[in-house]
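Q: what does this look like with heme C bound?
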Amino acid sequence: MNFWVVVPMVLALIGLRFLKPGILLWLAAWWGGCFIFLRFGILPPLPSSIIGLFMAILTAALALYGTADADKLSAIGKSLRAFLMERRFAPWLWGSLVVIPLLVGFNAYRQATSEAVAPATGRTIHPAPPSEITFRGKKIDILKASNPFRELEGKDKAAFAGHVAGGRAIYYKNCVFCHGDNMEGDGLYSHGLDPQPANFADPTTIAMLQESYLFWRIAKGGPGLPEESAPWASAMPAWEATLGEDEIWDVILFLYSFTGRKPRAQERAE
Ligand code: HEC
């Protein structure tokens, strides 16, 4: 509620009771007051279609009230005639002749000059992955697949380090241009891209995703995103064409090892 509008308006309507104006002025004051309340008094602003609806109902109600009995009707007729004919109202009459077209003109001007803004589009950054993908002709179950080299971390440290090193070479050959030296999504090319490359240092990316999810995203890239992520103009390439299955698992190991993050645990089906 915008009190700077509502309080003076309520005071003005209360003041009107004591002034005892003619019925015509009274109806006009209520009509105008309600319009000002709906248009400027409510925050956040109401859509104009709702204001139009309320004002139509209010107009009908005021018309009903004004014509409900013969006394009011003749009083309205008298006020109207006085307003149109009597000398003392002439300045008001001429004033309204000028003010009403000015208001309409101003409104038309405002509508014609208001800037069109494209509606904001929400997008799903992490859509649900497909349950299965076909990687170079081989079916991979994204819900169950896990990184085959992850278990080396505990068992064979040297072999694990070898896979991480392989992943590092792949990263600096292919990914660094977009995802950046520090994996913060600020590589050389990133400035021209929208959406920006994913920032792997940010806890809302790889730290909350499973390794199989990354496999899907790296293999299928932006083109592989489902409908619900549209409109996407993701520049993330589909690496299936360039990198083998093991190479993708290697680069995934490197993403986690470099950022010091842990992948989200695989959900185990009982
Ligand atoms: C041409 C620029 C570009 C290159 C090169 C690139 N990416 Fe991306 N990548 C993106 C963009 C842009 C996004 C964000 C939009 C999206 O999710 O598709 C992204 C998203 C991702 C995501 C999804 C992260 C998330 O939170 O959902 C992963 C994983 C990823 N990239 C890995 C890689 C790997 C690994 C490489 C190298 C083999 C690579 N990217 C190379 C542009 C690139």
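The chain has a mean pLDDT of 90. Residues 167 and 251 are 4 Å apart (CA to CA).
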